[in-house]
């Protein structure tokens, strides 16, 4: 490698390291506050290292059953919604990837239009209301069953698969459903993991949909409960269950809830990272 190449690699490494530190700093700051005392937080002493280490903020969360209930709702939405998303997206992407299926180009054009022109909030609300899905978890899952962007990525992956595999399955007597579930999907782990991660993160972080369609507090997801805590300092049942709750800083509790809300995604991502990278690269090769 010549001098210019080494210089570029060194500058690139330094730049990306700085960008990484800038991106990690807010998370470290939130983590430090969640383990710091109210006095240290109110005095502005907390940066990236906890001051006056304490677990009282997490005790507040453990004492508030509404947070655990919201956490469970988010888990149900994320797991169930992601399963529905993958099934529906794969079921539509596979026929759209096969050249022998007629009208596929017309369908793709209609799907592309939905990416450019999206329905406003009021028509969406009226549709959900007429389908009797208000104040149900279905309202958080069914309307977003298929993402057009994810559909195009999955279709591109299916198009890139060797057609000889499909022909061999048909010669052996397999129908379209058997070919898809026994041949196509086992070879599509990278793109399925990628799309699964996209859908799961979207479900886990979504709160606007629940804000519009859910009025029952028992069905609030974690992000909507976090929004209440951040905007109104509502500590819920913990105020009456914990002795010394007055010594707890609302900011500390907010930071603790944020850590709890992002922790599942942080834990899951390393196990899916290799599939995530491979799925994104392979899915972008051919359209």
UniProtKB/TrEMBL annotation:
Annotated ABC transmembrane type-1 domain residues: 71-272
GO BP annotation list: transmembrane transport
One Pfam family linked to the record: BPD_transp_1
Keyword Transmembrane helix: yes
Transmembrane segments: 7-28, 67-94, 106-126, 138-158, 179-201, 251-272
Keywords: Cell membrane, Membrane, Transmembrane, Transmembrane helix, Transport
One cellular component term from this protein's GO annotations in UniProt: plasma membrane
Record localization: Cell membrane
SUPFAM superfamilies xref list: MetI-like
Domain of life: Bacteria
Topological category with respect to the lipid bilayer: Multi-pass membrane protein
PROSITE patterns: ABC_TM1 (PS50928), PROKAR_LIPOPROTEIN (PS51257)
Keyword Coiled coil: no
Family indicated by similarity: Belongs to the binding-protein-dependent transport system permease family.
Protein name, UniProt field: ABC transporter permease subunit
Protein source organism: Paenibacillus dendrobii
């Amino acid at each position: 490698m010549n001098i210019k190449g080494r210089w570029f690699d060194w500058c690139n490494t330094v730049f990306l390291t700085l960008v990484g530190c800038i991106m990690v700093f807010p998370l470290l700051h939130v983590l430090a506050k969640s383990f710091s005392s109210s006095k240290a937080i109110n005095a502005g002493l907390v940066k990236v290292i906890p001051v006056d280490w304490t677990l009282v903020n997490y005790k507040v969360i453990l004492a508030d059953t509404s947070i655990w209930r919201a956490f469970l709702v988010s888990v149900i939405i994320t797991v169930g919604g992601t399963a529905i998303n993958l099934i529906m997206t794969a079921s539509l992407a596979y026929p759209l990837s096969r050249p022998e299926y007629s009208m596929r180009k017309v369908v793709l054009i209609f799907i592309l239009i939905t990416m450019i022109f999206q329905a406003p909030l009021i028509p969406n609300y009226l549709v959900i209301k007429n389908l009797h899905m208000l104040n149900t978890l279905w309202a958080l899952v069914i309307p977003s069953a298929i993402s057009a962007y994810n559909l195009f990525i999955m279709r591109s992956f299916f198009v890139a698969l060797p057609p000889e595999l499909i022909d061999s399955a048909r010669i052996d007597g397999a129908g379209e459903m058997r070919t898809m579930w026994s041949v196509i999907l086992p070879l599509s782990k990278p793109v399925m993991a990628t799309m699964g991660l996209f859908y799961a993160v979207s479900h886990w972080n979504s709160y606007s949909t629940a804000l519009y369609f859910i009025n029952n507090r028992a069905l609030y997801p974690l992000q909507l409960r976090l929004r209440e805590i951040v905007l109104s300092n509502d500590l819920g049942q913990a105020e009456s269950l914990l002795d010394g709750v007055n010594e707890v800083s609302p900011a500390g509790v907010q930071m603790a809830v944020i850590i709890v809300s992002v922790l599942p995604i942080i834990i899951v991502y390393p196990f899916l990272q290799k599939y995530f990278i491979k799925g994104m690269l392979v899915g972008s090769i051919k359209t």
